[in-house]
Amino acid sequence: MKQISINEKSVSFTDIVAENKDIIYTVLLYISGLLIGSILFKGLNEETRNAIKSFLEIGGTDFKNMLINRAAYYLIIFVVCLALGFSAIGFPLLSLIPTALGAITGLKIAYYYISLGLKGFGYSSLLITPQAALFITVIVFTVRSCKKLSRGILQNSIKKADMAQELSLASYLKQFGVLFLILILIILINTLTVSSFSPLIKLG
User: Fold this and answer.
1) With 0-12 CB in 10 A as exposed, 13-18 as middle and 19+ as buried, what is 29?
2) What mean pLDDT value characterizes the chain?
3) 143, 117, 184: which is closest to 25 by C-alpha?
4) Residue 197, Cα to own-chain centre: how many angstroms?
5) Taking the complete model, does pTM exceed 0.85, yes or no?
6) Could you read off the pLDDT of 19-56 as tens digits, one per residue?
7) How many angstroms separate the CA atoms of 143 and 150, rounded?
8) What is the distance between the alpha carbons of residues 107 and 100, in angstroms, rounded to a whole number?
9) Range list of β-strands (E), the chain
10) Cα(133)–Cα(136) distance, integer angstroms
């Protein structure tokens, strides 16, 4: 295996992959979700497509309504990640989150492209893809930290008391606090961007 020399230390590609496997797996799960969402939309009937359209239009372009809806959506997912992270059996379920998010984003992009053609594709490229990329970046690191915490709790729960390893909860709480602040910033940026540019883009 080819090795890379960094500060006189040899680091193999395998080591890099092993060190970041949770991030890589989460990204791959998100991409698979995108494909699933796109494929599913093509098979939906008109009634279901109209229901998706109504869902996408919740809040309209009003900044306050969009902020509330977006904050609720982002924060609920973030809290679910944390809840699973503090559970001994949560780490397998955490893999479902990026897949579900990818499927939702895939449905959105497919809706705009299939329903509105190039205009819809342009709208998705400008206003959906960038905000989805920002959000999933935070979720990727949140899922990684939550998986580590969940595995640690599980390992300690099945070991004898004198063999259990101490979990640095303070370190995890610090990570989650930083990710939460970044998420709040992303919510504000995404809401401001969409509310500002949506009225300028005619999709009808």
Assistant:
1) buried
2) 84
3) 143
4) 23
5) no
6) 788 889 999 999 999 999 999 888 888 888 777 777 76
7) 10
8) 11
9) 3-6, 9-12
10) 5
Euclidean distance between CA atoms 190 and 133, whole angstroms: 11
pLDDT at 154 over 80: yes
Partners of 6 in beta bridges = 9
Cα(14)–Cα(141) distance, integer angstroms:
20
* DSSP assignment letter at 198: G
Contact 103, 40 (CB under 8 A): yes
The stretch 172-191 carries a mean pLDDT of: 95
pLDDT at 189: 93
Q: What is the DSSP letter of 200?
A: G
CA angle 93, 98, 15 (to 5 degrees): 85
Of all residues in the chain, the percent with pLDDT exceeding 70 is 85
Contact between 194 and 66 (Cβ < 8 Å): yes
Angstrom distances, CA of residue 12 to CA of 5, 6, 8, 27, 109: 9, 10, 13, 21, 38
Mean pLDDT of 97-113: 92
Question: Taking Cα atoms as reference points, which of 122, 107, 108, 113 lies closest to residue 201?
Answer: 122
